[in-house]
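Fold these two proteins, one after the other.
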Amino acid sequence: MSGCRSRERWTRPEVMPRPVAAEESRKELEARDLFLADVNQRLVETEARATKAEEKRDSLATMNANLVDDRTWMRNFGVLNIVNTILDAPENMDAVAEVVRRALEVGYKAGYTKCLTHVNAISLKKFTDKRCALRDADTEAAMKTAVEAYNGLIVPAYAQIQECLEVDDHVDRLRTLFEPKASGEGGSDDVE
């Protein structure tokens, strides 16, 4: 048998189980699994932070848009409407009218007295203030009383404004109180 190999010459290499190599492979696989688990955990945490940051950004953008809208309303309408409400209040108008009337009286009496002083300085005949309508009136005390009444004035709109300013959504509350009414809302003055 020249072409055949004999069994004796050919020997099969013995495969010995290598528990050490299998153990090393298992440890390497476990280490890779731990590494992948750690990477996946970090990825989940990063995605959660990114989602949270995006939600926060959207919330801040909405809040900023609301603040810009509130500021624009306050600049264009709010302050003007609030001031006009206070100035046009009947209590305020009456108090201002009283102060103006008393100021005119004080000025009239002072002017009359000063005029008498100048006229009497150049005239031979001495004039008195008996023709002055306010001769016996204490115009200074009346003026002081009118100013004190004005300074102590309580306009109902003050309380409403104060209530609005004590809450977080004060601009929305001010809008409900002082928003100019659109023409044609419930009015009978509309001409068709």
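Now the second one:
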Amino acid sequence: INIQATRRLSVWRSNFGSTALAVMAHFLASGSDDTPDAVRETCKELLDGLAFLFQDLDPTKPENAYRSQFLLQLLAHTHLRSCIGCPDVPKLDTDALKEYGIKGAISLCCAVLERAIRLFQRGELHVDDQISTRGKATAKTPLKLNKVSGKESSTALAFSEQNWGACTRQY
């Protein structure tokens, strides 16, 4: 049962990463200019004051924090959808998990959105590579050359504890 639970948790967490890439790719592609320079500028604006976390992308209104469409869409698709029909397990105190566990899910959403924006900003991801010819998201984590092994790997850019754990805990 431990193996199955660990596998399920891994799938749940990886859904955050791939869904965030898709959400940001669609947003960046919807602009009138999706050239690399325009994408970098848009990403810079989203990161300025963490605007991507605010309703209407306006970080001057603290009451609108954690109400952005990016965050709400990501939370609904990656976490809340998987909680529907969740059984009550008294020994695990699932009622408390439902009440307080949302903070962890929101922190994951914030960190994974920041990661996606930074990947597009640095040019490690390209909008065109993340959207198929049919307009659907493909969510490909880019490969980066591992200098030690000489092979390409997605590990350096992955949404993992090693790469994004500290950032996630700060949210």
